[in-house]
Amino acid sequence: LPVPTLIKHMEKELETEHSCVLQLYNTNEALADRRIAQAEEADLSLEDVDLTPRDILMQYLRKSFPVKMWEEYYDEVSESIQTRPVRDSAGDIVTDPRAVARRDQLMKDLAGLPVPETVMERIINHFGSSSVAEVTGRKRRLVRQPDGTVKEERMTPSSRAKDIDSFMDKKKRILMFSDAGGTGKGYHSDLDRINQEKRTHYLVQAGWIASRALQGFGRSHRTNQRFAPNDVLVTTDIAAHKRFFSSIARRLDQVGALTKGERKTTGQGLFSAEMNLENEYADMALAVLFDDLQADRVEGLNLNTVARQMGFGDISEIEGDLISGLGLSMTRFLNRMLSMEIDEQNKLFDAFFARLEAQIQYAIDQGIYESGIETLRADKVEKISEQGVDVPVGKTKYTELALTYPLDPVTYEYLEGTVAFGARDSLFLKNKRSGKLYFFKPGPAITEADGTIRQRVVRVSPTATTYMNRSDVTEEKYEQIPKGRKAQKIWDAQVEKTPKSEIRSEHLISGTLLPIWDRLPDEIPKIARVKTDDGEVILGRRIAPAHLAKTKRALGIGVGKAPEITSKQAIDALMEYDATLVLANNWTIRARTVSGEDRIEIAGPTGDSIRMLEDFGAFTEIIGYKARVFV
After folding, report:
1. Which backbone phi and psi does 157 adopt, to 5 degrees?
2. pLDDT digit string, tens, across residues 244-278
3. DSSP for 286-317, written as a single string
4. Minimal CA–CA distance to 244: which of 179, 330, 318?
5. Taking the model in full, what pTM does it have?
6. CA 493 to CA 4: how far, in whole Å?
7. What is each CA distance from 419 to 330, 425, 442, 457, 490, in whole angstroms?
8. Which residues contact 334 (CB under 8 A, 6 or more apart)?
9. At what angle do helices 342-366 and 330-337 cross, to 10 degrees?
């Protein structure tokens, strides 16, 4: 779809003396080989070879067009009229001749429609093979000549190397590469080569793995270059296309590192984690999505319609797990989704994406998400202190930083403009203890490691968006405030009291870490990169406030009394880092999961102390014949 616009943009770039680099995911080599073989078998000329994706459309139409005959019958179990496919005496499904005729006519009409060629063929045929270098894995290509004839060109490792040299020596100013040409090779404006023009790098096809797509940008952005490239994402206005490309766009300005995910306002997003669509979180999101589709919990989508448009046909006879019954992998789901009508495709992808975000955010909340290196960015980064650590080799230091973050509160007017505001299950609830007002809306369910699906809600305040278990939102804790003037008045008052910014502490251990690794917290390590206002760049392992005192003692850094923390810092340590808080009386406070519910437990109190805590609002349960205290 975007190729005509792409070609016009390339022509302008070439006029301004920029060389063009095109990154592709699919070379359609199998399609070309199949078509050439068919042409040779039918004794056709190369000019008659059809390199369009027409046969893919034809196969989809043949398989997905509804041609079965259906009949009604009385189901004694449900005591209702049901429908089922008609079968003949041999047990085979009977087709409707009229539906078959309509399908065949539609296929005939499709066969007569003009279908555009693949991206590679259109680029090569427009600019000419003499102007386009190709570094892909395909072994041959068909190139249309100026006189209209078609010539087959063989592609070999030596021809690919020659094409790279032609591009770097400015004999060709356009280069296309795929995964086969995306590793180890440089297409940048090398100061040691003739072609030092600025590169315009087009991500034409991203595939479904963001990290692999991003690696390709490194081919045109390397050391010893004259100019940094311009990166262009070639996309459409299809939601599935835009949403995936937006995840790559977020990564481009991070230069290979993740930004710090601050869940402070709706506008900043829930997280900035890598958005690959082929990983364990995507698999769990897919399971939740189809579970919700089966239970009719996805607004605006019907399971039968989704299955039909994805080409699965009748799914009424599938028993048990639907995903297993359909043989639906993540890759197959993404590819099948592209065959849906655009409106339905957008709805389905948005529903899937919301559940993917929920899965990743849940992993982040549980402290089990491996995010790689994070780049901490703030309005102000100030070094508070720095102390050396004794190590047998190398140098290690502990650094305390103060980061100032802006706060952009969510207004009532913003909430009114969201789709969720008008949803039936969205409402305002005021916490009876704190008096704070929150906006609650349905959240996607999450799948735990044991396969349990837990229903969640999203809680929005002027400064934070968090996920909660639906079971935690009870009448004992919250009071409903009707939407309207009263809710707006309370919300506006909270927004008015919101400060312009807040300061948070960060603690980093940097330098040589291997000799002291066993003295650092036993958790998934979080590595961060930060640049102070003085220009110093620090790369080190982050230490959560709850682990700070113990870590400093283990490293031999002098510690006086335990650091004082606010109640907010305590809650963050419990919920964000799964920390254990040790009180002055040696009671401990930890986040626990009991009977599938997330709770905060106080361990240590007995007798009168338990009753005292109950008077302050705690509650107890006897579990395993032992009283346990929760807040």
Report:
1. -55, -35
2. 665 565 555 443 322 333 323 322 222 234 455 66
3. HHHHHHHHHTT-STT--HHHHHHHTT----TT
4. 330
5. 0.49
6. 52
7. 28, 12, 12, 15, 21
8. 208, 277
9. 150
